Amino acid sequence: xxxxxxxxxxxxxxxxxxxxxxxxxxxxxxxxxxxxxxxxxxxxxxxxxxxxxxxxxxxxxxxxxxxxxxxxxxxxxxxxxxxxxxxxxxxxxxxxxxxxxxxxxxxxxxxxxxxxxxxxxxxxxxxxxxxxxxxxx
Length: 137
Description:
By secondary structure, the chain is an all-alpha fold. It contains 5 helices and no strands. The protein has helices at 6-19, 34-49, 54-61, 68-88, 92-122. The longest helix is centred in the last third of the chain and has 31 residues, at 92-122. The two termini are 25 Å apart.
């Protein structure tokens, strides 16, 4: 799956806003601005790197004292961006997150293999599970 560039992320934000035409009121004047789309893409990237999902942002928008209009629309844009992204490409941050999950799985397999080898070497009556790295998680 291809990875989006910075410009591609901004274009996807614009597509997300265009797709939600009637729902975008607070940001309606900025919808055609390339600078705004770029800044929104950067904001979405920061939110994603902090582990904030569109639903979490929408919940925060409804919290007392929050700017409901601004954050609510940003949550909608973020959610639509994620939907469009899933259909077309991968965000650079998502690629890093996927790689980290793969490393976590590899570490767990290696740790289990080491543990199984230790059990096998200390208890001769235990069945040999090798190659334990290939066992399902």
